[in-house]
Design a protein that fits this description.
The protein has three helices and 17 strands. The protein is mainly beta. The protein has one domain: Jelly Rolls, CATH 2.60.120.560. The strands form three sheets. Strands 3, 4, 6, 7, 9, 12, 13, 14 and 16 form a nine-stranded antiparallel beta sheet that branches. It has a five-stranded antiparallel beta sheet with strand order 5-8-15-10-11, with no helix packed on it. The longest helix has 13 residues. 31% of the residues are buried. The N terminus is likely disordered.
Length: 286
């Protein structure tokens, strides 16, 4: 194994017949069979949201893996089976549900508005879970939030319903992920997810690929909302902030990491760097 962490790597390359100097910023290189593609996917994912850190103040990542960041959702308060073990957040239903078990989802102790949420999970066969965001009480319609669906698609019937609107990485019951970009690893294997929320813009990422993006309140949103389970809640998704929720759907699930970076106000002036991780510098010679 060879690992190199560096802030800047200088590369000499040919550009249209001329020798040029190129550098890559904030890149981790992993020369390890089996890990390289995952690392490359993460680099690509980070490059895909570089425009946010270029224009907005973004906080340092904060881990939410510890149970101290969560509390049982008041509507489902009961005997929780969520545990911290080996640095992971686990819904410990591997031996099945106890007698008279009532699902207990967890909600964050803090509200979030604009943020980047990164997480890794391992599903069991047939597992169903999810992460909800901007979760709030809609009165007569109950507690609702936009949901990044976590599902073992091939072994759970929900993944085949609604033309993919209920499948893994979907905005649950609203928008399906792009099937051409979606690469879901099978149960028992690690998947990485990312949720980006900035005002009315949102993105879902899966294993280094942006598989879905949407704009809250536009025409596509209105059509999807009207045909969804949330049609009765007129302002669904439009609240500027809310809680996070990790879902107990009566299946075991393991979260290896959950980190959040909050997005603040715009920077005073635009940076020089263009969008993307590559930037050519003047040729060494002509």
């Amino acid at each position: 194994m060879y690992m190199m962490n560096t802030d800047t790597i200088f590369i000499i390359a040919m550009n249209k017949g001329k020798l040029a100097l190129i550098f890559v910023e904030s890149l981790t290189v992993l020369l390890l069979s089996g890990a390289f593609s995952q690392a490359a996917g993460q680099v690509a994912a980070d490059a895909g949201i570089r425009w946010i850190s270029d224009r907005y103040r973004v906080s340092k990542p904060v881990s939410l893996i510890g149970l101290e960041h969560w509390k049982p959702h008041e509507k489902t308060a009961g005997q929780t089976k969520w545990i911290n073990k080996d640095g992971k957040l686990i819904l410990d239903l591997f031996s099945g549900k106890p007698k008279n078990y009532a699902s207990v989802s967890l909600v964050s102790k803090k509200e979030y508005g604009n943020f980047i949420l990164d997480f890794t999970w391992i599903a069991e066969k047939g597992s169903n879970s999810g992460i909800k965001y901007r979760f709030k009480d809609f009165g007569g319609n109950g507690w609702l939030g936009c949901e990044y669906q976590i599902l073992d698609d091939p072994n759970n019937g929900d993944g085949k319903k609604e033309n993919g609107r209920n499948s893994a990485a979907s905005l649950y019951n609203m928008f399906a992920p792009d099937p051409a970009k979606k690469k879901l690893n099978s149960y028992g294997n690690r998947n990485t997810g990312r949720i980006v929320v900035l005002n009315n813009h949102a993105e879902h990422w899966l294993n280094g690929e942006k598989v879905l993006e949407y704009e809250i309140g536009d025409e596509d949103w209105k059509k999807a909302h009207a045909s969804s389970k949330f049609a009765g809640a007129e302002d669904f998704g439009k609240n500027p902030k809310g809680l996070l929720l990790v879902q107990d759907h009566d299946y075991p699930i393991t979260f290896e990491t959950i980190t959040v970076r909050e997005i603040g106000g715009q920077k005073a002036s635009p940076p020089f760097r263009k969008r993307g991780i590559w930037r050519p510098v003047r040729p060494i010679w002509k």
